[in-house]
């Protein structure tokens, strides 16, 4: 046996022994702390085989001699050691050695014992390309990523979460697109690692794209017709445009990343940086893509760790920075959608206003396009909410998890195709300041005979003369949706509540539909949730800034 082979065999044997020592009696918190089945993860090979989930038509061969090099940056904070190491192993296993410059794992001041000496011992044996960086204090994912990005030496940065797995040929499609256009921000198609079984689940079918809700959460959206037409019939294996990034894995040239401002390092811990980079990528001369032939799986789970402060307020302030710098007049919809939540009432300090001013000046110097351009050219399928909307979005039954939609016969039916905090234009309703229930500029009226709901003209005399809609709220966006009806001026006002029923009338017989019945606080089928409660009246001038002309 050659000396090199002997040394490699010895190294691998030491790694296997160290794995047994680390995971036999792990020095870590209980599984419930992580919201992941960590015990099973420690029993699962770090270099496990996973199925190739790419579409059949994806290219299998790339000229890697022409592709740019890549540094993979993986921040972590109190993550499960086995999940972190499996992430690193998957990158090392499935990235051509000539393309992979380094893997930089950045410890955001973790406290768990197994992430100190055990991790250091393992990294020393693993691969010379793997570098461990320790932050001197908790800075958050955003700044940890920036720390790794600044020391990376490759042409391209790949940011990846510490509970992901890279699939076969994940890198080549991304690097190929960046080679064609150096001003691309590109993400792989995100598969799923089930948090309790650790099953690798490939997401088949049409490739979704990333959007945003008006309260600036990331949402998945169907590929719209205008984008499907752009990529023709190749959308199964061609990169397509996405307005925003999911955030768990994406690649960008290092020089382009820093030329458009890197991450906003005055954002705290985590939250909104993925949407902000999506907006900025498009508005400042780049392109943001999703590639179905690159696959990286992510473990979607409830957030397990503290933010060293009030999580909602920290995320809200990040989102406010995003809205203030990039959304122009559209920021009013973000502000109105969060104004109803007392936990989200925050304000900027003088220092934070100064840093906001710097980001605005950067935007101006880069000659970035307006948010109006973004809405019209990148995400035109998303309608702008009307300014007189009080409740807006999907109307979602809390008991059945069905939501309003308009049937072919123009009645309001109930469908399971619902996405709370998703933007589906065909399912958007609103109650306006005149207490009318509206769908696409038409009123939802009450059938006098059946008490079912159907579309009608707002001024039509075929319905009750007076129909006033509102919500008896038991939270910011949830409650009993009621309507006060009056058949005539000499008649008493009657209050009825929207109730999910099995319809007994000939029209849509046997279907689940909303019907107006006497209100009953014990009836769980009378409890509904709207996507947004808008309040445009609050004075937000206490935190806004403006660029001096």
From TrEMBL:
Its gene name is 20216426
Q: Quick one: signal sequence residues?
A: none
Which GO annotations describe the biological process of this protein? protein O-linked glycosylation
Q: Which Pfam families match?
A: Glyco_transf_7C (PF02709), Glycos_transf_2 (PF00535)
List the Gene Ontology MF annotations in alphabetical order.
Answer: polypeptide N-acetylgalactosaminyltransferase activity
Residue ranges annotated for the Glycosyltransferase 2-like domain, each copy included: 71-219
Fetch the PANTHER family from UniProt. Answer: N-ACETYLGALACTOSAMINYLTRANSFERASE, POLYPEPTIDE N-ACETYLGALACTOSAMINYLTRANSFERASE 2
Keyword entries, A-Z = Disulfide bond, Transferase
Residue ranges of the Galactosyltransferase C-terminal domain?
240-296
Q: Does the keyword Transferase apply?
A: yes
Its name, as the record gives it, is Uncharacterized protein
GO cellular component terms, semicolon-separated: Golgi apparatus
């Amino acid at each position: 046996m050659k000396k090199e082979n002997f040394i490699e065999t010895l190294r691998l044997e030491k790694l296997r022994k160290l794995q047994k020592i680390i995971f036999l009696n792990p020095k870590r918190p209980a599984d419930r702390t992580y919201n992941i089945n960590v015990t099973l993860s420690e029993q699962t090979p770090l270099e496990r085989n996973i199925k190739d989930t790419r579409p059949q038509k994806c290219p299998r061969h790339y000229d890697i001699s022409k592709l740019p090099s890549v540094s993979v940056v993986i921040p972590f904070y109190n993550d499960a050691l086995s999940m972190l190491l499996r992430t690193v192993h998957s990158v090392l296993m499935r990235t051509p050695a000539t393309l992979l410059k380094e893997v930089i794992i950045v410890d955001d001041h973790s406290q768990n014992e197994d992430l100190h000496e055990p991790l250091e011992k393992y990294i020393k044996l693993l691969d010379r390309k793997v570098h461990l960086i320790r932050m001197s204090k908790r800075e958050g994912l955003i700044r940890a990523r920036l720390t790794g990005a600044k020391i990376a030496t490759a042409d391209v940065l790949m940011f990846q979460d510490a509970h992901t797995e890279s699939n076969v040929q994940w890198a080549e499609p991304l690097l190929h697109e960046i080679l064609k256009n150096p001003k691309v921000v590109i993400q792989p198609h995100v598969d799923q690692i089930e948090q309790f079984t650790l099953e690798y689940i490939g997401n088949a079918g049409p490739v979704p794209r990333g959007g945003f809700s008006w309260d600036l959460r990331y949402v998945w959206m169907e590929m719209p017709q205008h984008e499907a037409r752009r990529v023709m019939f190749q959308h199964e294996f061609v990169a397509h445009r996405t307005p925003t990034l999911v955030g768990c894995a994406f690649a960008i040239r290092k020089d382009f990343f820093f030329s458009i401002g890197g991450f906003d390092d005055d954002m705290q811990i985590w939250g909104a940086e993925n949407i902000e980079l999506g907006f900025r990528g498009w508005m400042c001369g780049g392109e943001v893509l999703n590639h179905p032939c690159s696959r990286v799986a992510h473990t979607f789970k409830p957030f397990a760790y503290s933010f060293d402060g009030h999580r909602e307020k920290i995320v809200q302030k990040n989102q406010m920075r995003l809205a203030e710098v990039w959304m122009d007049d559209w920021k009013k919809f973000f502000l109105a959608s969060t104004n109803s939540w007392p936990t989200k009432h925050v304000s900027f300090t003088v220092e934070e206003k100064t840093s906001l001013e710097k980001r605005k000046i950067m935007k101006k110097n880069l000659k970035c396009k307006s948010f109006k351009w973004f809405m019209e050219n990148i995400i035109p399928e998303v309608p702008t909410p009307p300014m007189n909307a009080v409740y807006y979005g999907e109307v979602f039954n809390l008991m059945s998890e069905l939501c309003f939609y308009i049937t072919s016969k123009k009645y309001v039916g109930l469908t399971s195709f619902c996405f709370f905090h998703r933007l589906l234009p065909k399912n958007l309703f609103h109650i306006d300041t005149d207490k009318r229930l509206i769908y696409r500029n038409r009123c939802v009226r009450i059938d006098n005979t059946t008490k079912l709901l159907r579309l009608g003209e707002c001024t039509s005399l075929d319905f009750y003369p007076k129909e006033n809609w509102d919500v008896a709220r038991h939270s910011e966006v949830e409650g009993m949706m009621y309507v006060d009806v009056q058949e005539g001026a000499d008649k008493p006002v009657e209050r009825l509540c929207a109730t999910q029923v099995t319809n007994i009338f000939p029209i849509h017989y046997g279907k689940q539909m909303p019907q107006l019945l006497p209100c009953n606080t014990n009836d769980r089928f009378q409890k509904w949730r709207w996507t947004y409660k808008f309040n445009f009246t609050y004075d937000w001038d206490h935190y806004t800034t403006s660029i001096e002309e």
